[in-house]
Amino acid sequence: MKKRVLSGMRPTGKLHLGNLHGALANWKRLQEQYECYFFVADWHALTSDYQDASHVQEYTWEMLIDWLSAGLDPEKATIFIQSKVPEHTELHLLFSMITPLPWLERNPTYKEQRKELIEKDLNTYGFLGYPVLQAADILIYKAHLVPVGVDQLPHIELTREIARRFNYLYKKEVFPLPEPLLAEVPKLLGIDGRKMSKSYHNAIYLSDSPEVIKEKVSQMFTDKSRLRKSDPGHPDICNVFSFHKIYTPAETVAQIEEDCKNAKIGCVECKKCLAENLIQGILPHQERRHYYETHAGELKEIVEFGIKKAQMVARASLEEAKAAVGI
């Protein structure tokens, strides 16, 4: 039997190129090797954005369209919406009863985000306890592997601790201990040279029109030491060149690198070349995106099928957990 993989994504806005070449590219590879469950974590969106959830539903469907357009295959992976499988929240309640408070308070992400997101009131149980909900998300499918970055390792370890504690308290090995699946995820920088992020307003979105893409590429930061076209460039530190390596044919990339180093091409010309190649590169994605935007019935059927499949597995796990507890 294939090992089971579980991963989710919060619906906080439109997806961008960083999402495409990061999580989605990794998920696309994983669905060829494992039994995959991918879910829209709409309950998790409320942990920090509970004061205004008016866009969560819209962002949920936008995200699902982008997932399918990026190559997630409903024949190979189970794609569903977290809130449509109520077993997640019921298992979360069981876990919240047995999780010691200090385990949550020492969570490094909890500490960091409270410092960074000072404009939001995060003094809520929901924010403190979201790793417990995350544990329920993982364990209700008895996932063997969870693809994460290094910064998420403490969350997986907490999930393992909760599983151990549950199994110990109720004298039954209900939940296996999931393992982190560390992924080498390339980080595409935004147009300002920082991490590509919705909150930084520096992202190129998968739904951006050609005109918008051209405008954003024209604003991209390049080699700071190159002030004039006659100055030799340093492609290895230029954000524009990092995009060329993804969207421009290899032989052209080699020529651009040589011309930049010898001041034979200027940044304006280089950006125009990138914009055209980028537009063509994501065109297949945007065509698939348009298909699902205009075939809402098919999209809904795919998601409803995924929800039913996920719920069958989740219900069995929940009943086993409740039986162990004695409820």
Principal-axes shape call: elongated
State the domain count. Answer: 2
- What is Rg? 22 Å
Oligomeric category: single chain
How does the major sheet shape up? 3 strands, parallel
Q: Which structural class do you get from the secondary structure elements?
A: mainly alpha
Sum this structure up briefly.
With 327 residues, the protein is mainly α. It has helices at 17-30, 42-49, 56-70, 87-98, 101-105, 108-116, 125-128, 130-139, 153-169, 210-218, 239-247, 250-261, 267-281, 283-293, 296-325; strands spanning 4-9, 35-40, 77-81, 145-148, 179-182. The strands form two sheets. It has a three-stranded parallel sheet with strand order 1-2-3. A two-stranded parallel ribbon has the order 4-5.
Summary tags:
two-stranded parallel ribbon, 3-stranded parallel beta sheet, elongated, 327 residues, Tyrosyl-Transfer RNA Synthetase, Rossmann fold
Describe the overall structure.
The chain is mainly alpha-helical and 327 residues long. It contains 15 helices and five strands. A three-stranded parallel β-sheet has the order 1-2-3. Strands 4-5 form a two-stranded parallel sheet. α4 (87-98) crosses α8, α4 packs parallel to α15 and α8 (130-139) crosses α9 (153-169). The radius of gyration is 22 Å and the shape is elongated.
SSE map:
Elements: E1 4-9, H1 17-30, E2 35-40, H2 42-49, H3 56-70, E3 77-81, H4 87-98, H5 101-105, H6 108-116, H7 125-128, H8 130-139, E4 145-148, H9 153-169, E5 179-182, H10 210-218, H11 239-247, H12 250-261, H13 267-281, H14 283-293, H15 296-325
Parallel strand pairs: 1-2, 2-3, 4-5
Helix pairs in contact: 3-14, 4-8, 4-15, 8-9, 10-13, 11-13
